[in-house]
């Protein structure tokens, strides 16, 4: 049953012949978990909340950064350094108080995935890394949940619905049927490295929300067994059909894989604990002692211009072509904003080019500003 206020709120949806109050009731009864409250998660959450999905969970352990604001439209300049999940919940509650929201201000892992997702029927993947995408896929297959997936890179995006329930009671193909093997981590370009046009995640995220609405209400045709591809520069679209992969480890009787695994290892990502690191205090001491070392900054030019430690600027996307610019006969400190990109750079240089003299600056320039030179951030 709907209150008079709800009837008025959703009237433009319920008057649709193919929708009606019965579909609205399904939305109100639905429980959807959104992994990632960033570029894709923001439009997904806004449209699902506006549409009247009854219960929504938000999973995100990140804090809001200034570089997020051009595409993560739930947040404002007043929200910088606040948690994304909690801030999103506060903003969404102002949009529709009829929706119940639960916040998980953490990252999804193999250890917490089942517990976090246990009360939800549909999981929406708005993440930006392959280990979490495979984790979400395997979670959905093992727990019989639908996986609504989206991804973006620079000017292109993709949308698909994996493992959705079919009329005969079986499930549609899943992410591993389409992508059985993860890409080489050294070939993956993140938004921070390659950039992304801000409006694109709005388009792809809105499509993801629409796919979720169709799954919940049963209207239309979902993209189960299909991958929708969109190029924003020329509006070209393509629908790729795919089917079951008999080598999928989650398939078979018995299946080869019946539990969640170590997804960093599966995707070839080296554990940070195996990497040599130095602290910002150690870097300062090296500078004060005038030690002979090279400092390499793998951020983008605009970040370097905003604040830098005087290192050699070699952005991540230029790294494969500038390996010769990195010294081999002295200690090399690699730094970025917080330590993530620099760790990936070190992984690439060690594995592909045999470097053994690289050290990651723990915490990156953020740690330097917080612990050594607060004035650098102003």
Mean pLDDT comes to 92
Structural class: alpha/beta
**Which percent range fits the helix content?**
25-40%
When the domains are counted, the total is 2
* Quaternary structure: single chain
Order of helices and strands: HHHEHEHEHEHEEHHHEEHEHEHEEHEH
Question: So what's the overall shape?
Answer: globular
Uncertain runs are: none
Question: Can you say what the CATH homologous superfamily of the largest domain is?
Answer: NAD(P)-binding Rossmann-like Domain
Strand order of the largest sheet: 3-2-1-4-5-6-7-8
CATH architecture of the largest domain: 3-Layer(aba) Sandwich
Report the sheet with the most strands, covering strand number, pairing sense and barrel closure. 8 strands, mixed
Task: Report, as a whole number of angstroms, the end-to-end distance.
Answer: 54 Å
> What is the name of the CATH class of the largest domain?
Alpha Beta
How many β-strand runs?
Answer: 13
Residue fraction in strands: 15-25%
Rg from alpha-carbon coordinates: 23 Å
By DSSP (H or I, 4+ residues per run), the number of helices equals: 15
CATH topology (level 3) name of the largest domain: Rossmann fold
């Amino acid at each position: 049953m709907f209150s008079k206020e709800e009837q008025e709120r959703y009237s433009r949806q319920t008057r649709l012949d193919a929708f009606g109050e019965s579909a609205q009731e399904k939305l109100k009864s639905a429980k959807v978990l959104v992994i990632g409250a960033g570029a894709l998660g923001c439009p997904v959450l806004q449209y699902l909340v506006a549409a009247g999905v009854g219960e929504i969970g938000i999973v995100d352990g990140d804090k809001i950064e200034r570089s997020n604001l051009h595409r993560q439209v739930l947040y404002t300049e007043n929200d910088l350094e606040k948690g994304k999940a909690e801030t999103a919940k506060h903003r969404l509650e102002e949009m529709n108080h009829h929706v119940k929201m639960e916040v998980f201000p953490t990252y999804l892992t193999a250890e917490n995935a089942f517990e976090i997702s246990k009360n939800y029927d549909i999981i929406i993947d708005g993440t930006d890394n392959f280990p979490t995408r495979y984790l979400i896929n395997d979670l959905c297959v093992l727990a019989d949940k639908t996986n609504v997936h989206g991804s973006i890179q620079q000017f292109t995006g993709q949308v698909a619905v994996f493992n959705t329930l079919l009329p005969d009671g079986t499930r549609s193909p899943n992410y591993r049927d389409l992508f059985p093997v993860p890409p080489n981590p050294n070939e993956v370009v993140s938004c921070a490295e390659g950039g992304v046009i801000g409006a694109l995640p709005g388009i792809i995220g809105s499509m993801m929300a629409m796919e979720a609405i169709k799954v919940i209400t049963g209207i239309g045709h979902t993209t189960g067994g299909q991958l929708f591809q969109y190029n924003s520069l020329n509006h070209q679209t393509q629908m790729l059909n795919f089917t079951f992969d008999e080598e999928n480890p989650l398939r078979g009787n018995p299946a080869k894989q019946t539990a969640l695994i170590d997804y960093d290892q599966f995707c070839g990502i080296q554990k940070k604990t195996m990497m040599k690191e130095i602290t910002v205090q150690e870097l300062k001491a090296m500078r004060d002692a005038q030690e002979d070392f090279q400092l390499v900054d793998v951020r983008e030019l605009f970040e370097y211009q905003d604040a830098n430690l005087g290192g050699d600027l070699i952005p991540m996307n230029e790294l494969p072509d500038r390996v010769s610019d990195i010294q081999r006969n002295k200690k090399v400190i690699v730094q970025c904003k917080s330590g993530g990109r620099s760790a990936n750079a070190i992984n690439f240089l060690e594995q592909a080019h045999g470097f053994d003299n690289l050290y990651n600056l723990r915490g990156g320039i953020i740690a330097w500003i917080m612990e050594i030179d607060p004035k650098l951030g102003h």
